Amino acid sequence: MLQQVNGHRSGSDAQGGKSLREDLQEFLGGEALLHELDDLTKVNPVTLETVLRCLQARYAADMFYTSAGCTLVALNPFKPVPQLYSPALMREYHAAPQPQKLRPHIFAVGEQTYRNVQSLIEPVNQSIIVSGESGAGKTWTSRCLMKFYAVVAASPTSLESHKIAERIEQRILNSNPVMEAFGNACTLRNNNSSRFGKFIQLQLNSAQQMTGAAVQTYLLEKTRVTCQASSERNFHIFYQICKGASVDERLQWHLPEGASFSWLPNPERTLEEDCFQVTREAMLHLGIDIPTQNNIFQVRRKGIPLTFGRCDGQPLS
């Protein structure tokens, strides 16, 4: 503890501060080996600087996962790294006697939770919390976990089990474009920022084979429909409709060609997420037919089509 005598630190505290600085210099002096520290609990002394320098060194060496005890720290590589999520790597972590001894990876976390279910006499639900700031890679991490469980939670001898697991995985993945269209938006920090929370539940039978799944969403940022920050956009679906609707659909939905809309700022920006056809196809795969889709896109209030306003405040019709 810090002690002060007449406004000055005691000699023992001064020595402690000097010792910490020496430890920092010694630790950072071996920076060439920092990328080899795959667990932040091995960092000594533990300070903000040493932790960040360790993560920076591992990132530079294309090591994007680092353990921190029972927590996994994932850094977004912002580039494709196909070999990092290959089926062969999934099988390697699944077959390893001690997956925690392998390099830190989201597959190691997934395998450990799967084994926890298998090893318990009374099956207990396992939870993985994926958290982080906007653009950190939460959506991608969730997809990787679903793919991993679709591979490992299927009977190796049953073709039908594999088909069920693949079908469940595909339906969950097909739900992503729909949820992202209606719940994601372009923000200052992320072109595809989720403006809602998501809870994915994978259901296993007594043989630990995947038999079902459920997806729940919550805390949708509804205020974004009418109020967007400067240089940000509304939800993707509105831009998808305006850019991808056919001539007949525009007439049906009261969307004149070339019209501007006060609630759709920055429409000139073209994003990968603006593909209307991808959303419509995903809805079809989920069992939402074309007539139902048209009813969704033609928002109604009291039986009358709801029209948007122009930037000048004048109605479109």
Question: What can you see in these coordinates?
Answer:
With about 325 residues, this protein is of the alpha+beta class. Helices cover about 40% and strands about 10% of the residues. The chain is built from ten helices and ten strands. It has a two-stranded antiparallel ribbon with strand order 1-2. Helix 4 crosses helix 5 and helix 5 (about 140-150) runs antiparallel to helix 6 (about 160-185). It is flat.
Which descriptors apply to this entry?
single chain, 317 residues, alpha+beta, two-stranded antiparallel sheet, 10 helices, 10 strands, 12% strand, Kinesin_motor_dom_sf, actin filament binding
Please give the structural blueprint.
Blueprint: E1 4-5, E2 8-9, H1 11-29, H2 48-60, E3 65-68, E4 71-74, H3 87-95, H4 106-119, H5 138-152, H6 159-183, E5 184-185, E6 193-194, E7 197-204, E8 210-218, H7 236-244, H8 247-252, H9 276-285, H10 290-297, E9 300-301, E10 304-305
Antiparallel strand pairs: 1-2, 3-4, 5-6, 7-8, 9-10
Helix pairs in contact: 4-5, 5-6, 6-7, 6-9
